[in-house]
Amino acid sequence: MPETLTFHFEGALADSHRMNFYESARFQYAAARLMVKLAQFRQGGKFVQKITTSSNFNIQLASQSDGSFNINVEDPGQDPTEDQFIKISLADLIAYVSERIVEKIDETTLTNAPISIGDGVIPPPINGLQK
Fold first, then answer.
1. Alpha-carbon Rg of the chain, whole angstroms?
2. Which of 18-22, 53-57, 62-66, 127-131 bottoms out in mean pLDDT, i.e. has the lowest?
3. Which of 6, 46, 83, 116 is the most buried (most CB within 10 A)?
4. Among 90, 124, 88, which residue's Cα sits nearest to residue 107?
């Protein structure tokens, strides 16, 4: 019989409907490993050393609404009065890095991303290579 477990957080940042993204990811990873290890023990009375697709028992997350699943991440942004190494939104930086890794963003989108390092601007790539 399927069962649903809910991890509920209260106090500190949770009182203002926020959690530290890194710490919540660490919790989720630890909780996922614990859940799979307990499922392994429940089924076979032992733990396998390595969790693989055949030993993870298909424990899934349930979305908060039908048809979608969001993990909303908020960044406080950069303080314009502080001297920053790179002046760019995290969304644009993720797009920039993703394009280099996955190469799925079109050249127009990349060209329009306002990316500046110190006093300079990162030039757009030429034939996939950086100047």
1. 21
2. 127-131
3. 116
4. 124
For 65, the token pair is 């609404």
Q: Name the pLDDT band for 131 (thresholds 50, 70, 90).
A: very low
d(CA 59, CA 50): 16
For residue 55, give both structure tokens. Answer: 């030993």
DSSP string, the chain: ----------SGGGGGT---HHHHHHHHHHHHHHHHHHHHHHHHSS--SS--TTTSTT-----SBTTB-----------TTS--SEE--HHHHHHHHHHHHH--S-HHHHHHS--EETTEEPPPPBTTB--
Closest CA to 113 of 90, 96, 130: 96
